[in-house]
Prior knowledge:
Structural class: alpha/beta
Largest sheet: 5 strands, parallel
Radius of gyration: 23 Å
CATH class of the largest domain: Alpha Beta
Shape: globular
Helix content: 40-55%
Strand order of the largest sheet: 4-7-10-3-11
Strand content: 5-15%
Low-confidence stretches: none
CATH architecture of the largest domain: 3-Layer(aba) Sandwich
Number of strands: 11
Order of helices and strands: HHHEEHEHEHEHEHEHHEEEHEHHHHHH
Amino acid sequence: MTTTLLREHAENQFAEELAELAKIDTHQRPPNWKLSPWVVATYILGGKLDNGFEITPKYIGSRRLMEVAIATLATDRALLLLGVPGTAKTWISEHLAAAISGDSTLLIQGTAGTAEEAIRYGWNYARLLAEGPSERALVPSPVMIAMRAGKIARVEELTRIPADVQDTLITILSEKTLPIPELDSEVQAVKGFSVIATANNRDKGVNELSSALRRRFNTVVLPLPATLEQEVDIVRRRVESLGKALELPAEPPALEEIRRIVIIFRELRAGSTSDGKTRLKSPSGTLSTAEAISVVNNGLALAAHFGNGRLNANDVAAGLVGAIIKDPVQDKIVWQEYLETVTKERKDWNDLYRACKEMME
């Protein structure tokens, strides 16, 4: 029986690209890196190789930001990717780990309930009771595994982790060692080991990083897409990729439908229309690029299973309302004002105006 995975790890999904890049990689590689920094940048940013092979871009934005991130990992510094939700922090973290270590699975998902053992190590309590503290009873964390193998460990949503647990990373990042006092031993990091952490700057004040921990990271702030065209391109590429993975029996979305969604998100985020003539209230949500991708994908699923297979205003209206109205009182007012003052006045948006009004009734 063949099992089709819903979402493959980056190193498997893009294995052909990574293999092609390894063939042409003549640059110096840091210890235990699968690819050189220059070729890692090509993998992340995309491009056409000399043999004509096309590398798909994983990040559309500033090349220099990605070069800084990659160069950081070639030193003894850890990398902190900071930004509002939907700026591709997790996506970039995964692809950097895949290109550098060939393994993006050494992951700690930060939550309010993340314990110290998730970062250091735990114990198999059956063995611990039977044998006492021993190597066989030790359960290594993803960080410990990465230290031993010289790979990249990933920590998602670092500021969601309690402050005292966060500080477990200080010794690991500064001394490159993880003490195991129960065994009177330690794990020392092999060359190639590093940590990529992500943090949402909307969470500022939840669990602030201590100054001691922050000093151990080089911080790269990932901005929202600079231009409308850039954001439309990101949404289009990700929707096409997800549509294939989910096997949605729908036509690829029309570029103009994507453009309308992105324009709405950008205008509400900015608090004004794109021409600057109308001031707008902004909703409480982030209206990130990731949410725009979700709106389009949801619309494609509706079009495929309950429509004619072609994305239209009726298919995206429900997703738009759900993405924009997080606060049922304040955000509803913001959205209604936008519909009446902006959407209604744009003649080619009449179908979207009617569909959204119907959803609000």
